[in-house]
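As noted in the main text, all predictions were made from sequence alone. Below is one such record, for DUF3108 domain-containing protein.
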Amino acid sequence: MKKLLIILALFTSVISLGQSVKKLTPEKNYAFKQGEWLKFRMSYSNFLNAGFSTIEVKETTNFNKEAFHIIGKGKSTGLVSLFFKVKDDYQTFMYKETLKPYRFIRKINEGGYTKDKEILFDYEKNEAIVKNHKHNTETKHPINDEIQDMLSSLYFLRNQKLKNLNKGDEIELPMFFDQEIHNFKLVFLGEEIIKTKFGNINSLAFRPMVQAGRVFKEQESVTVWISNDDNKIPLRIKASLAVGSLRADIEAFKGLAHPFNIIFDN
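Prediction:
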């Protein structure tokens, strides 16, 4: 449950495979806007309801610069909540002009395991200031000018031109996570029509390269489908775990920036 909540926010932390990478080009118009709200239903092994996650887009300013405030929340429900209660709060603040984050918040309670961290990104000094509110500590870490955080990564990628990708192309960007930089990598699997509660939808399928081991079955354990339209919203995420599987499906939405293209059967 807790791993899928992280995947939903960032497509999970990934490892670099050292292969050729497709360079992205940003869209002229935003793929999202203030008021966008997405809700996802989580399930374990395709039958047990595990919880819900929501992501909302708001607007704010920082030093007179326009910015987005993205809020992601997740919580366990039903039987899962009885033996493993989850309540997560992820927030990122990113400048509209560059879609680079300047502040990131992570407050989680996962079965009694808690974190309360805040990251401030200073691009003049190229450093990330990590404030651990739980332990009342502050550390500084070097970053580069293209850094993203766990949540801003999703919105940065959504605002890139993805329709010109070829099957097998890879996307990579640096992401600051757990006080160090990780290489965030996705492999494009191709186009696919998937069935959702709203109807059949054209989608683009991607595979984040994850760390095989205690949690995930293998490096290719996670698949992500996003809508093949100007919104590029996540539609479905599947993850094969060492024990069982996790899945997230789009449950509700509102405030999309562009038309949501649904294929209706004749």
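The chain has one domain: 2-252. The longest helix spans residues 2-10. These features were considered when defining construct boundaries for the mutagenesis experiments described in Section 2.9.
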